[in-house]
Amino acid sequence: QVQVVESGGGLVQPGGSLRLSCAVSGSIFSVYHMGWYRQAPGKQRELVAVVIGGGGTSYADSVKGRFTISRDNAKNTVNLQMNSLKPEDTAVYYCNAKVTSTLGTTTTYWGQGTQVTVSS
C-alpha cells in the first residue's frame, strides 16, 4: 500500500505566500515524478508543477516565477512554495506521484487534496 498525504493549505490574502507539503509513504521501491495539480470550482484539474527524479522541473505558465517546487528524494516528499498569490490561484491542490511498489507494480497515486483560498 502507498499513501499520499498533503498539508499546508489555508486562507491567505492576495500577495501572500503559502507552502504545501506532500509525503509519499508505504511499500515504495522508487518514486518517479512528483507533482502538484489544482482544480478550481467548475474547471478541469490542471497541472501546476512537476519534478522528476533527476530534479528537472516544469511549471504551468500561470505560476512561473511565483511558485517553486522542490523534492527530497530520501524522504519521498515534495513541496510547493507559492508566493505572490492571486485570487485566481484559489483551488483544491492535489499531490500526484508515480510510484513503483515493492511488488513491482507502477501506479500513479493522488492525495486527498488541500484547499487554498486567496481572498481579502
Helix content: under 10%
Structural class: mainly beta
What proportion of the residues form beta strands (DSSP E)?
Answer: over 45%
What letter string, H or E per element, gives the SSE order?
EEEEEEEEEEE
Question: Which secondary structure elements does this structure contain, and how are they paired or packed?
Answer:
Elements (H helix, E strand, L loop, with lengths): L1 E6 L2 E3 L5 E9 L1 E12 L6 E6 L5 E3 L7 E6 L4 E6 L8 E11 L4 E5 L3 E5 L2
Parallel strand pairs: 2-11
Antiparallel strand pairs: 1-3, 3-8, 4-5, 4-9, 5-6, 7-8, 9-10, 9-11
Features:
120 residues, four-stranded antiparallel β-sheet, single chain, mainly beta, seven-stranded mixed β-sheet
Describe this structure in words.
This protein has 120 residues and is an all-beta fold. The protein has strands spanning 2-7, 10-12, 18-26, 28-39, 46-51, 57-59, 67-72, 77-82, 91-101, 106-110, 114-118. The strands form 2 sheets. Strands 2, 4, 5, 6, 9, 10 and 11 form a 7-stranded mixed sheet that branches. Strands 1-3-8-7 form a 4-stranded antiparallel sheet, with no helix packed on it. The mean pLDDT is 95.
Give a short synopsis of this structure.
0% of the residues lie in helices and 60% in strands. It has strands at 2-7, 10-12, 18-26, 28-39, 46-51, 57-59, 67-72, 77-82, 91-101, 106-110, 114-118. The strands form two sheets. Strands 2, 4, 5, 6, 9, 10 and 11 form a seven-stranded mixed sheet that branches. A four-stranded antiparallel sheet has the order 1-3-8-7, with no helix packed on it.
